[in-house]
């Protein structure tokens, strides 16, 4: 029996002081040094779901604003959730307008992207700000998933937090934990702590000799190591809390090898896993890319073999457009399924959906010529967080009066250039942040909150 | 990511197309100040008419947009700002709270957001406002936009290349794997599920230090990787070497053919045939019985004895071996060998499976015929030969004369042996590990490990950090072996291992020291840490001796590991990772598959290697009368006579319509979007990769391209881009980009030759028009003629290529400060007639290569 398992913490302390203020560690307060976990709080949850390449905007556009609107065909499956959703038209990210490259990477950040599509330094994503507040109470501050493609989440330093694409790995990390029993795991965590101490000590020794302008990459390294240390601490603190009991067969379901060509089943496995993670309060913040911008997105289930990217460059071909609508419909149906599952889980005086706000959307609108205004956006759930659903919120209509999708060119223009230049997607993000108790007056280029849909 | 969108400007502004404007000329004379080479070039142009000479001059200015460190705004830009902007955005009016007159003139370095804003507003036509009576011409707009864009790019490069006192550049995933292999003799499966992350790119380059970021998850992965690596190097229980074999098909005693085969003496002649679609040979596990357990993690040699029967005019069978659990391809090759003369194919594969749990290995025949359950090769009757009597209900797999009708793969037997640890690897492992259970012994081992891992001598006391871990672990009651391994994990996760560091902590230093030079050279040519010879030269301070460095260059280039340079550099320079990023539409391109995709990339890599190794020049990259083909790509190009499954040099005929890198299917595909070829992207790619000029970004608020209604007459993409020519606002930029791409319109989205463009609409498919005109007026009829025009600008390509090489080798972008260093190599390259090997050598021997 190893009774000295906290031995490395002392030395880490001194290290911490040495790093200085250049590293902002938002989770610092939640470090469980004496193994006391933070008090339970009422859960407020958020899920962000991303689809690539925009939609067939001609069949997508809801034409009437307010409560008295009709779902268009691709959105029809949401009818049963009418009182729990708000479709929103007219939002956009100003800094990426006309620059289609990387629009997936800035969907949750709103950062500026070079038009060349080259690399750039991102800014923090909205989900991570939520994780800083709500994640304190859960075993995992946030969960980054991708059914296909990459992560939507970016740290405060603008570094991408990689997403997991393997259901089994996620399930085991959340519900099984590391192998070997508590003592073995604790020893492993301690060992890891010593390793982190050592490499940090080594890096710090050099960092002290360098001027602050001179240690860019070294700071990045130190920050990363430091955050792993926090994760290690956290894992240690949670080690004595038993993982939740799951219904029989759950593990098998998420460990089975999945057939990616059966898309509906594949997607629903991810959605079920998200529901499981939320209802067991493993995490309260999830982001998930559903398909990637470049490849994937074929849906053999409904006879579509092209990638979504290929379909989005339809060149006006009615058959391609029809198929694009079909995939839009399919993807919204999976969202409806997800909402069904969230609703099916009853909590004290409501459902899991009531405490979970779900944002579903794309960073692209009219994919064929890379129009990224009037972004397809659906907000759902979170009734108890203060949302007032049941209407179509439209920022275009007050200015244009009415839509005319029969004039494709005119509608594509709406999807390429913002009608209401103040309708920033960041306004929605700011409102969502407030719903999650994140105290801030600003997110990226936000101008105001969307008070019209707040109760 | 692709870098340019097709765009059309709203035709709402009146302006004249006036390319030869004064403003542009000013800018150009300003930009060419340091390049005397361009003057020689100029003279050639001066022979033509005066107008053409001016045009040529302007083209050159554009092509040779050199890094210029400007502390002042160019005169034509200042003129523009004075004429159109300052009145409203000056100190009096401050329209929109935005002043231009007080912005820093160090464009690209200071006030960058403001300058970017100015560029975008002018580019989009938003500024000056429509109601301003005085409007700039489209060319004046283009002139200022290009100038600001170029300055911003320089600023970006300078920031990315910023030399801190010590620069840290992380190893790429590929380099990590090779380095660990050389350090400790363990192959790490970094691309398997749970391995390391793929690295981000910057214009195709994967090794740019400032781009390779590090997240907490990276650190977790590095810890995990180090644990896996060290567990294999120092297993809990010793893992012995074993060899196991088996017949591919064994007939058991209860099989109803057993007695017959035994009587005929054929029991050991039964084989496993793979003919029809979907068949998988799943029984590839020779590890049987308690005495023959799979030994454990390590590198294994696997061999199969096989025959491959190729129909006379058909494809050879293609053997593909995969690890099914990891979805990893272990081996893939066309097999040709007669039934009575089997061959043995041998390959190595690494597995991290624990003892007793062998890998799951499947074999398939990729070149197969449609599924048929009843061939005489696939029935309940054990298979021995294709010459079997066929039952009446069985499908024939051979012709009357006994020749194969389909590609047939026959597996006889398989052998697996390992784990393979070379003597050198074992010696290394032993050296690092304490010989006895004492901290002194630990220190001795660690000093050997850390010195090689950090690629430099250790600093005083540096080891103590790691020794202390061992101490702490021992105090905590861990076993000696585990405690030592924990210390080793820390060494493999330390900054000094994961990052290539250059510079001194205490002092400013611009020259590389010997250790840094050894490291730079080794990662340039081998993508791994220096070997003992390099280390020893560094230690003795000899590496900076020109002759020694030259010898090392020759030695390293002759080593098979230099193949990594060929592969990696060609991929990164040409951006080959983008091949297949947008998978071609299966309906439009049914012949496209993974094998073709790999073959496309393989051609360009092999082509580069051939040029490098055979003393050929840069000209071959522009045009050549040969290329490197394997059977798959030869079939795709319609070039007969390529049988052996490897890349081989093939002479090209004019009717093949190939030659040079620009007609490679890889290059023609990577600029396409999976359905259509994209001339603008092709032009932008060519401009950047061959001419070193990144076109300015398109304006932000262009009107979308409207699709052609299906009932409209068919139009080529070129016709749809007509506005790029007729609308002066588009033309000012696009006439410099589009012709470079349109020249290759005879090649479709996956690089197949065509004479007509297949498009939607009514009527006949329109014929391809690949002709065009460069901004200087030089016209070309098709790709071949265009390639000749490029050939005439060889110096531009020379300069670009050397810059790309330097980006790769120095792991950073090039800046204004590097211009002299680059120019020196450019000059030598020209003296050496642009021979690629010589210019690579010149790069290694250059001052630039020895500086930070």
Name the poorly predicted regions of chain A.
1-34
Mean pLDDT of chain A: 86
Shape of chain A: globular
Largest sheet of chain A, in brief, is: 7 strands, mixed
Q: Bin the helical content of chain B.
A: 25-40%
Provide the succession of SSEs of chain A: HEHEHEHHHHHEHHEEEEEHHH
Summing up helix and strand content along with how strands pair, one would put the structural category of chain A as alpha/beta
Pairing-aware structural class of the strands and helices of chain B?
Answer: alpha+beta
Based on CA inertia axes, which overall geometry of chain B fits? globular
What does this structure look like?
The complex is a heterodimer of chains A (455) and B (852). Chain A is an alpha/beta fold. Chain A is 36% helix and 8% strand. Chain A has helices spanning 7-19, 57-60, 126-134, 167-176, 181-207, 216-238, 250-255, 263-279, 308-312, 318-344, 397-400, 408-416, 425-435, and strands at residues 45-50, 85-89, 143-146, 285-289, 346-347, 350-351, 356-361, 377-381, 393-394. A seven-stranded mixed sheet of chain A has the order 3-4-1-7-8-2-9, with helices on both faces. A two-stranded antiparallel ribbon of chain A has the order 5-6. The longest helix of chain A is centred in the middle third of the chain and has 27 residues, at 181-207. In chain B, strand 5 (318-323) and strand 6 form a beta hairpin. Chain B starts with 21 loop residues before the first helix and ends in a 7-residue tail after the last helix. Chain B is an alpha+beta fold. At the A-B interface, helix 5, helix 6 and helix 12 of A face strand 1, helix 8, helix 12, helix 13 and helix 14 of B.
């Amino acid at each position: 029996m190893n009774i000295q398992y906290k031995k490395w913490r002392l030395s880490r302390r001194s290290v911490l002081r040495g790093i200085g203020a250049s590293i902002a560690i938002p989770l610092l307060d939640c470090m469980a040094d004496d193994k006391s976990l933070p008090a339970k709080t009422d859960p407020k949850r958020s899920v962000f779901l991303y689809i690539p390449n925009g939609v067939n905007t001609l069949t997508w556009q809801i034409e009437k604003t307010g409560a008295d609107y009709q779902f268009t065909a691709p959105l029809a499956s949401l009818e049963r959730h009418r009182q729990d959703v708000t479709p929103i038209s007219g939002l956009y990210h100003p800094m990426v307008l006309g620059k289609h490259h990387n629009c997936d990477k800035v969907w949750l950040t709103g950062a500026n992207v070079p038009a060349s599509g080259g690399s750039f330094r991102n800014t923090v994503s909205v989900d991570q700000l939520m994780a800083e507040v709500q994640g304190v109470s859960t075993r995992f501050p946030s969960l980054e998933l991708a059914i296909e493609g990459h992560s939507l989440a970016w740290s405060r330093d603008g570094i991408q937090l990689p997403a997991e694409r393997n259901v089994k790995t996620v399930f085991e990390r959340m519900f099984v934990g590391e192998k070997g029993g508590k003592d073995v795991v604790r020893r492993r965590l301690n060992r890891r702590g010593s390793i982190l101490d050592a490499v940090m000590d080594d890096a710090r020794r050099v960092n002290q000799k360098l001027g602050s302008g001179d240690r860019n990459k070294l700071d990045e390294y130190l920050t990363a190591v430091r955050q792993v240390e926090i994760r290690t601490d956290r894992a240690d603190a949670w080690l004595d809390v038993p993982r939740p009991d799951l219904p029989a067969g759950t593990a098998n379901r998420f460990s089975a090898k999945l057939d990616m060509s059966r898309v509906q089943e594949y997607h629903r496995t991810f959605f079920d896993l998200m529901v499981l993670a939320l209802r067991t309060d493993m995490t309260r913040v999830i982001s998930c890319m559903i398909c990637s911008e470049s490849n994937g997105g074929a849906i053999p289930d409904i006879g579509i073999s092209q990638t979504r990217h290929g379909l989005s460059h339809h060149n006006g071909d009615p058959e391609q457009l029809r198929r694009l609508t079909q995939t839009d419909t399919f993807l919204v149906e999976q969202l409806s399924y997800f909402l069904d599952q969230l609703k099916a889980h009853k909590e004290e005086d409501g459902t899991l959906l009531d405490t979970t706000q779900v944002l579903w959307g794309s960073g692209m609108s009219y994919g064929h010529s890379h129009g990224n205004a009037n972004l397809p956006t659906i907000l759902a759930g979170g009734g108890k967080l203060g949302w007032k659903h049941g209407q179509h919120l439209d920022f275009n209509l007050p200015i244009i009066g009415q839509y005319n999708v029969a004039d494709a060119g005119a509608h594509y223009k709406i999807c390429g250039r913002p009608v209401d230049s103040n309708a920033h997607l960041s306004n929605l993000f700011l409102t969502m942040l407030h719903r999650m108790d994140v105290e801030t007056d600003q997110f990226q280029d936000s101008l105001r909150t969307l008070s019209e849909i707040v109760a | 990511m692709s870098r340019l969108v097709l765009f059309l400007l709203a035709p709402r502004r009146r302006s004249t197309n006036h390319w030869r404007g004064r403003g542009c000329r000013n800018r150009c004379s300003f930009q060419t100040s340091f390049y005397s080479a361009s003057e020689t070039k100029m003279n050639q142009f001066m022979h033509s008419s005066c107008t053409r000479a001016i045009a040529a001059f302007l083209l050159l200015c554009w092509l040779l947009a050199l890094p210029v460190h400007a502390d002042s705004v160019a005169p034509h830009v200042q003129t523009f700002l004075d004429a159109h902007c300052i009145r409203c955005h000056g100190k009096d009016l401050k329209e929109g709270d935005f002043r231009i007159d007080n912005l820093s003139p160090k464009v690209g370095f200071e006030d960058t957001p403001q300058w970017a804003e100015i560029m975008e507003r002018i580019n989009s036509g938003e500024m000056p406002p429509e109601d301003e009576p005085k409007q700039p011409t489209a060319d004046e707009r283009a002139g200022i936009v290009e100038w600001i864009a170029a300055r911003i790019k320089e600023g970006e490069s300078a920031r990315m290349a910023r030399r801190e006192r010590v620069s840290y550049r992380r190893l790429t995933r590929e380099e990590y794997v090779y380095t660990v292999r050389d350090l400790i003799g363990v192959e790490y499966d970094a691309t398997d599920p749970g391995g390391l992350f793929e690295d981000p790119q910057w214009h195709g380059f994967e090794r740019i230090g400032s781009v390779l970021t590090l997240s907490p998850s990276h650190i977790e992965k590095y810890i995990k990787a180090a644990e896996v690596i060290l567990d294999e190097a120092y297993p809990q229980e010793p893992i012995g070497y074993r060899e196991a074999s088996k017949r591919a098909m064994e007939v058991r005693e209860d099989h109803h053919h057993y007695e017959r085969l035994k009587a005929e003496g054929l029991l050991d002649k039964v084989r496993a045939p793979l003919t029809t679609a979907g068949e998988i040979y799943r029984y590839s596990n020779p590890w049987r019985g308690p005495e023959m357990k799979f030994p454990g993690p390590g590198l294994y040699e696997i061999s199969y004895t096989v025959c491959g029967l190729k129909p006379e005019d058909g494809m050879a069978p293609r053997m593909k071996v995969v690890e099914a659990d990891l979805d990893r391809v272990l081996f893939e090759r066309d097999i040709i060998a007669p039934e009575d003369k089997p061959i043995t194919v041998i390959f190595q594969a690494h597995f991290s499976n624990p003892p007793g749990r062998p890998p799951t290995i499947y074999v398939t025949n990729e070149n197969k015929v449609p599924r048929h359950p009843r061939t005489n090769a696939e029935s309940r009757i054990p298979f021995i030969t294709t010459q079997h009597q066929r039952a009446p209900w069985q499908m024939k797999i051979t012709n009357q004369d006994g020749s194969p009708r389909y590609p047939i793969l026959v597996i006889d037997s398989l052998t697996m042996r390992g784990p393979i640890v070379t003597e050198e690897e074992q010696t290394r492992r032993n050296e690092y590990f304490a010989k006895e259970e004492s901290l002194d012994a630990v220190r001795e081992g660690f000093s050997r490990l850390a010195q090689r891992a950090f690629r430099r001598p250790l600093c005083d006391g540096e080891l103590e950090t790691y020794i202390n871990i061992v101490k702490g672990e021992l105090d905590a009651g861990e076993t000696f072996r585990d405690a030592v391994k924990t210390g080793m994990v820390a060494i493999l996760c330390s900054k000094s291992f994961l990052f290539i560091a250059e510079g001194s902590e205490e002092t400013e230093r611009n020259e590389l020291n010997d250790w840094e030079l050894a490291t730079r050279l080794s990662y340039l040519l081998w993508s791994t840490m220096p070997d003992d010879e390099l280390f020893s030269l560094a230690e003795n301070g000899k590496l900076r001796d020109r002759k020694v460095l030259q010898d090392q260059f020759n030695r390293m280039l002759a080593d098979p590991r230099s193949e990594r340079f060929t592969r990696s550099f060609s991929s990164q320079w040409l951006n080959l990772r983008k091949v297949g990023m947008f998978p071609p539409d299966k309906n439009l391109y049914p012949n496209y598959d993974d094998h073709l995709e790999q073959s496309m990339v393989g051609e360009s890599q092999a082509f580069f290697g051939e040029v490098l190794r055979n003393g050929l020049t840069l000209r071959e990259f522009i045009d050549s009368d040969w290329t490197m083909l394997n059977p798959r790509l030869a079939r795709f190009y319609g070039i007969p006579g390529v049988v052996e499954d490897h890349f081989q040099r093939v002479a090209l005929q004019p009717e093949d319509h190939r030659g040079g890198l620009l007609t490679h299917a890889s290059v023609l595909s990577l600029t396409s979007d999976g359905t259509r070829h994209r001339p603008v992207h092709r032009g932008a790619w060519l401009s950047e990769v061959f001419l070193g000029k990144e076109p300015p970004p398109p304006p932000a608020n262009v009107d979308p391209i409207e699709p052609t209604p299906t009932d409209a007459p068919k139009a080529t993409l070129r016709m749809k881009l007509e506005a790029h020519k007729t609308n002066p606002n588009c033309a000012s930029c696009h006439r410099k980009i589009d012709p470079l791409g349109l020249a290759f319109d005879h090649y479709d989205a996956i690089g197949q030759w065509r004479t007509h463009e297949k498009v939607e609409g009514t009527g006949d498919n329109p014929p391809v028009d690949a002709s065009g005109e460069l901004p200087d007026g030089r016209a070309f009829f098709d790709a071949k003629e265009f390639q000749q025009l490029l050939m005439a600008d060889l110096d531009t390509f020379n300069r670009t290529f050397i810059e790309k090489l330097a980006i790769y080798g120095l792991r950073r972008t090039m800046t204004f400060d590097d211009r002299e260093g680059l120019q020196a190599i450019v000059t030598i390259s020209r003296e050496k007639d642009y021979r690629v090997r010589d210019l690579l050598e010149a790069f290694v021997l250059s001052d630039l290569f020895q500086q930070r």
